[in-house]
Design brief:
This protein is an alpha+beta fold. It has one domain (about 5-45). It has one helix and three strands, in the order βαββ. Strands 1-3-2 form a three-stranded antiparallel beta sheet, with helices on one face.
Length: about 50
């Protein structure tokens, strides 16, 4: 399956931004970001194409 990161706190925004930056720098692959509001859960999914 694809690795998922779930954050449920107000820090989700900053954490998500930093995490996505690391992901984009490391893997340089497309990502699916599903996040409603800062107070709501944010889920980041990475397609495991070649790993």
């Amino acid at each position: 399956g694809a690795p998922a990161v779930v954050a449920n706190s107000r820090q989700a925004n900053e954490t998500r931004t930093i995490w996505l930056r690391l992901v984009l720098l490391e893997f340089n692959k497309p990502y699916l970001l599903q996040c409603a509001e800062l107070a709501k859960p944010c889920i980041v999914l990475l397609p495991s194409s070649q790993q």
